[in-house]
Structures are given as structure tokens and as C-alpha cells.
Amino acid sequence: MKSCFYALTLIILTQGVCLSQTDSLTEALNNALVLKGEFANVRIQKLNRLKTRLKGAGEDHEQRFLILSHIANEYKTFIYDSAFSAVLQLQRCAFHLQNPVKIAYARNQLGFILLSSGMFKETLDSLNSVNVNGLPDSIRADYYFILARVYYDLGDFDKDLHYTPQYISLGNRFIDSARNLYPSDSYRNIYLKGLKDIKNENWNEAHKALSFLLEKYPLGDHELAVTASTLSHFYISRNEPRKAIRLLMQAAIADIRSATKETSALSMLAELLYHEGEVLKAHTYIQHAMSDAMFYGARQRKAQVGSVLPVIASARLSNVEAQGKIWLVYSGVISALTMLLIVFSFIIVRQLRKRKRTEKDLLEANKIKEEYIGYYFNINSDYLAKIEAFKKSIEMKLLTRKVDDIKFVINGINLKREREELYHSFDKVFLKLFPDFVTVFNSYFRAEDRIVLKDGQLLNTELRIFALIRMGIHDNEKIARILDYSLSTIYNYKARIKSKSVVRNDEFEKKIMAIHAH
């Protein structure tokens, strides 16, 4: 098993670096995504070995510092919380040793971790406590590079005509200080030059430096990912998205091989593919990007990916709807079911477009989106299969001139049963998202007025009306169309329920909306 894994790894390594065609890179990237868990397990095993060594170090603080520095380095692009914890231990160990060089090194590491989480002020606070005078060149260079990244990232975050140029200027100053401490022909020196040129829109100079690294230098996975990802901005600026896409695919493959979760390559790739109309690929990659962001655990990265994911998911949904409309030409006799599907797809799109209000709301919204996207595609797939079978049956009757049998085929469609199955599917998915809905709903009534469901019943009509309201459908006409009732019947149901509740009528629907997903 282990030999097979390393053989597959070698195949992906060769493909990721050497292949130039987008289709080949897509295949290599998809193969890497299949093995993503295996690459992560390799890093986890390495961390477990380091933790075992740490336990064996006892109170030997010199040995503990060395091992903790390795642990922090492994975690810093893998899991934010664990990296932060390891760096705090590293810092305490450095202070115990009263070694200024080790203290400065630990503060640099803390600054990098805080910056990865988007905590700019805290990063500056950590670095401002470092006195770089007399420190080794390697630590001073890292110190200046992290400061440069802080100000470059602040400029990208603000995008303000007044403040961004000031941040870029500060970033330039610190990146020059870092470059002065690296050999002129080193990877780090050349990369920092390319990064500075990108930030200052010196596009040709940036292309020259970064292309030189990709073509001439033996880069490790992380160096390859960073360099290719940075160079992609050159092609984006020149409106050459296909070249940028190939670079980002190479970067994403390298990130996967190195089990790097703190990365933007996949989300940038998904966004470019979305703008190029490749929505299905974009959706696959943005889902993996969100998975990585959730695994790493930094709020900034989750927010960045979360701002792109609903847009791409909504576009994918629109593509599916467009394909469904083609089939509707052949299915006029079951237009009622079509209307129901369109209404439910509207529910999904509405959920996808909700903005982040709080971190808890964002997590809840993401869960609802994922469950309902899966629900919609399953329902739509079954529906299209039925339409295809119906179409083939009609065509066969027409070919064999059995026109009279067509009426028999049409009469075989049981709309009532189809509608009941649709409601049952809705009930299952809704209760998966809101498992406490019935219990909380009944808590708004006296014991004798609470709803008691029949055996095998998930929701009844009254509960289903307010389940739709909880999903964001407040229009009584839409509720009536979905449940196949008259508008007056919906009004009567709602009025009767509210009149029995211990909650004030004007507050009842607000209480329904306050029921949280799990």
C-alpha cells in the first residue's frame, strides 16, 4: 500500500511540474485531490513523531526549543490553532533560556502565524518587540520579510487610494532590507524582487524574475506553489487567464503535495475558471478550497473563500436549471412538478446569497447551502430521469403509430404521488438541518395544543408551512403554490396556529426564524 502511494506521488510530481497543457494539468490536479488525505496523513505522522520526541526531551529546554521549532514549522501552514499553540510554547522556552536570538526567532514565528490569520495589529505588536540589532542575518531577513508582507497585505485588504500607496511604500522598504541580507543569486532574493515588482505593477520585471525561478531553479513544493501563484498575477493583469490558470493549477498541485492548507491558489483558480465559464470545475475547486480553509481554521482565509463560494455555487445551480429548461419542452403535462422544482431552486439560491452576519451565522448558512444543493441535484436528477423515460415512451408510441396509447401513458402519471414524494424529501432534508424544529415549535404552545404527528409522519401541513417560512419564504402566495393549497387555506392555517400559541401573533414568525440549524 505504501509503495503504491509513493508511486502515485511520483506520477503526480512529474505531471504537476512538466505538463503544459491545461487538460493534462487538470487531470494531474484531480489526481492530487484524490490523494489529498494521504498527503495530509504523511504530515500528521511526522508531527506525531516530533511530539513523541518532545515528551522524551523532558526539561531539557535546548532540546525542547529545537523540537518545538520543527513542530511549529510543520503546523504553520497546516493547522492555525496548533501552530499558534506550538509557537507560544516555543516562545516560553526561549524566555526560559534567556537567549535573545531564540526569543527573536520565536517572535518571528508568532508574527507569521498571526499574519496568516489576518491579525495585522497583533502581528505588528509581536514584531515591534524585537530588537534586530546584533541578530543573525537569517532572523533579521525573516523579520523584514514578514513586515513587508504585513504592509502588502494591508494594502490588498484596504484597497484605498490614500492608504494603500503608503502601505506599499512601507512594504517596499522592508522587502529591500530583507533582500540585502540574502545572496543576490538566491531563490529568496529573486523571489522577493518579483513580489515587489508585482506589488508595484512593474509587470515585465516581475515576469522576468519569477519565470527565471520556475525555469532555472530546483524548487521545492512550497517554493513552486508560492512562485507560480505570484506569477499568475502577471497574466491576470495582461488579461491572459488561460496562462494564469495553468500556473495556479501547478501551484495547487504543489500545495496538495506539501499538505499546505493555508493557501489561496485553489480559490484563485476557481474564481478564474468561473469567469471563463467553467462553472463545474470552479465549483469542485472552491469546495476543496473551503475544506482546506476550514481545516486550517484561520478566520481570514475562511472569509475570503466564503465570499467566492456562494457566487460559484449559484452559477452552477443556474447551469443545471438551464439544462432543465431544455427538457421542459417535452414535459408540458407535468408542469406542476416543474413549478415546484423552480420554487425550491429559488429557496437554494436565496440561501446562497445570504451574507455573513456573524461567524456562527456563516457556518449555519454554509451548512444549509451544502445540504440543499445536494438535495436539489438529487431531486432534479430523478426528475430528469422521469422526463427522459416519459419522452422515450411517447416517441415509441408515435413511431409505432399507437396514438391512442399516449393517453394511457399520460394518465399513468400520478401527480399526487409525485407531490407527496417531493414533500417527503423536503421534510427529510429540512429536519436534517433543523432536527429540533418540531420540539421547539411545540414549545410555543400549551401541552393540549401541541402538534402530535402520526406514525411515519415527518411534518404535517401546519409544520410544513412554518418550515418554508424558516427557509425564508414569507410570501403566502408562494407557500400556497408550493403546497398546492388556496391562498385562503394558508391564511386560515396560519391564523389558527398563531391563535393557539402562547407567543404574541406579531412575534410568532420571528420566533420561528430564531430556530437554529445544527
Q: What labels describe this entry?
A:
mainly alpha; Arc Repressor Mutant, subunit A; 25 helices
What would your notes on this structure say?
The chain contains 25 helices and no strands. The protein is elongated. Helix 9 runs antiparallel to helix 10, helix 15 runs antiparallel to helix 16 and helix 16 runs parallel beside helix 18. The protein is an all-alpha fold and 518 residues long. The N terminus is likely disordered. Among the domains are: 78 residues; 85 residues, Arc Repressor Mutant, subunit A, CATH 1.10.10. The chain is 78% helix and 0% strand.
Summarize the helices and strands and which ones pair or pack.
Blueprint (H helix, E strand, L loop, with lengths): L1 H17 L3 H13 L1 H22 L3 H15 L4 H18 L2 H17 L3 H9 L8 H22 L4 H17 L7 H13 L3 H14 L4 H17 L3 H17 L7 H11 L3 H18 L2 H30 L6 H18 L6 H41 L3 H9 L3 H19 L3 H6 L18 H10 L5 H8 L3 H14 L4 H9 L5
